[in-house]
Amino acid sequence: MPIGTTITEFIIQEQRRMKNVTGNFTALINDVVIACKSISSAVRYGSLVGVLGTADTENIQGETQKKLDVISNNLFIRRTEWGGQVAGLASEEMNNVYQLPLQYPRGKYLLVFDPLDGSSNSDVNGAVGTIFSILRRPDDSSGEPTEEDFLQPGTRQVCGGYALYGPSTMMVLTTGHGVNGFTLDQRIGEFILTNPDMRIPEDSHDFSINASYMRFWDPPVRRYIDECLAGREGPRRKDFNMRWAGAMIADIHRVLCQGGVFMYPIDRKLRAKNQEGKLRLLYEANPMSFIVEQAGGLSTTGTQRIMELEPTGLHQRCSVIMGSKSEVERIISYHLEAQ
Ligand code: AHG
Ligand code: MN
Ligand code: MN
Question: Where in the sequence is the domain holding 243, given as residue range(s)?
Answer without folding.
Answer: 206-338
